[in-house]
Write a structure and sequence with these properties.
With 437 residues, this protein is an alpha/beta fold. 45% of the residues lie in helices and 14% in strands. The chain is built from 18 helices and 12 strands. Helix 17 packs antiparallel against helix 18. The radius of gyration is 25 Å and the shape is globular.
């Protein structure tokens, strides 16, 4: 009997020790263990700040894992990341902008090749690689072009089917300008040179001469761009600034919000921007702005290149998640768990579909965004996709800064286009040499 009681007491003590060792939090990591870390996401996109804040809150409420989201101001991400990454509590999740951005941050990138988030990709082509390592995960597929108010275009006597080339676009834009007072609207929103707007021209519009030169030369990168298609770049930029809601001299102070509001208020037919702008256009805010999706379309940016009648929209991604390999092990694990939740949970996939559009993950939801329907329609019709060649520009920020400075001088002060060519071509060679030693 004593022997039995002793055995029973030993069993009770053993069970008590096991129970004491259990954790109450049932949040599970990729490996099945309990998550104990925290997440700090340095967000790249200001327009999605509130969406990420809401998602972080939902995840913390569900799991108990703290998630902090800090959003860099427009045009300041690299500067902000440089500052934050040096801190003790550095971001555990940050963004690398394509292969050029990776060159600056690869020493901080955790290898994701064995992670579940990597396994959620629909294609390996959306992984940003550094040799055999997976340094980043592309999380959104985006399109950009000329967002078009079809109702205003029809009031001017045209439809989107009437615009199949630069000559067509020029004819429509200049006709609208000639009748601007009668119609009550302009052809294009303001091509602002403010930092909140200039990325549309130093990056997205500048993609056209880079893309077409790469295509003509059969390359996907170069140490010295020739500028073969800079006259085409000039042609479309001139069309913008001379058929706008304001005079060229006023563009230096115009912001991205100015351009957006001009479009929302029916002041212009065309607005160069991307699929990410859709939610801002169709969602009501405190000013009552809301556009009917049926009034919207996105058409290619035509610039007079031969065969452009078969062009589609500019589609690609430069937005890649990276995990800070220098973070604490438990914070890395917590970050990996959060990333998987974002791309598999109902809350996460809904937000991604509504705010970002199509995403390259197995559980992604189909977005309502009509701009993606337009992109798909062009592709289905056999039109080629204009890929994002600007991902391979050298010393990204410095080169683009030189281009936008030259564009500003050209636009506002009546400067020479030769300065734009110099910034584009010579600036490219200079920055490439600096970057590659």
């Amino acid at each position: 009997m004593k022997k039995f009681l002793a055995m029973l007491l030993a069993l009770v003590m053993a069970l008590s020790l096991v129970a004491c060792g259990e954790k109450k939090d049932d949040t599970k990591t990729e490996g099945g263990d309990t998550a104990t870390g925290k997440v700090y996401y340095l967000n790249f996109k200001p327009e999605q700040d509130q969406d990420w804040q809401d998602l972080a809150k939902a995840y913390t409420e569900e799991t108990g894992v703290p998630v902090t989201v800090l959003t860099a101001a427009s045009g300041t991400y690299e500067e902000k990341l440089t500052s934050e990454i040096a801190k003790t509590d550095a971001p555990t999740l940050f963004q690398v902008n394509g292969p050029v951005g990776l060159a600056n941050w690869k020493d901080y990138c955790y290898d994701l090749k064995d992670s579940q988030i990597y396994g959620e990709l629909t294609s390996d082509s959306f992984a940003l690689k550094d040799g055999d390592a997976v340094a980043g995960i592309g999380y959104v597929i985006e399109s950009y072009g000329l967002i078009t108010n079809k109702t205003l275009l029809e009031k001017a006597g045209y439809t989107v089917e009437d615009i199949q080339s630069f000559d067509d676009l020029k004819k429509v834009a200049e006709d609208i300008t000639a009748r601007k007072d009668e119609l009550g609207f302009a052809a294009f929103t303001s091509a602002g040179m403010d930092g909140s707007s200039d990325w549309r021209f130093k990056t997205h519009l500048a993609n056209l001469p880079i893309y077409f030169e790469y295509q003509a030369d059969g390359i996907n990168s170069t140490d010295a761009i020739k500028g073969t298609y800079l006259d085409n770049y000039k042609a479309i930029f001139d069309l913008y600034i001379n058929n706008s809601t304001c005079a060229p001299a006023d563009l230096s102070g115009k912001t991205g919000t100015d351009s957006e509001n001009e479009f929302l208020n029916g002041k212009a037919v065309f607005f160069q921007n991307g699929s990410w702008e859709y939610a801002n256009l169709v969602t009501s805010d405190d000013k009552g702005f809301k556009m009917n999706p049926e009034d919207l379309a996105m058409i290619p940016i035509y610039c007079g290149v031969e065969g452009e009648e078969k062009a589609g929209l500019c589609c690609g991604t430069e937005n890649c998640w990276a995990v800070n390999k220098n973070a604490k092990e438990e914070d890395i694990q917590a970050t990996l768990d959060f990333m998987k939740w974002v791309v598999t949970s109902d809350e996460g996939t809904t937000m991604l579909a509504e705010q970002f559009g199509p995403c390259p993950f197995k559980n992604a939801k189909t977005p309502a965004n009509v701009f993606f329907a337009d992109a798909n329609a062009y592709t289905a019709a056999g039109n080629y996709i204009v890929t994002w060649a600007f991902n391979w520009t050298p010393a990204v920020d410095d080169w683009r800064a030189g281009v936008v400075d030259a564009l500003t001088q050209y636009t506002v002060n009546g400067g020479s286009w030769d300065n734009v060519k110099t910034a584009f071509v010579d600036g490219w060679a200079t920055q490439y040499a600096k970057e590659n030693g």
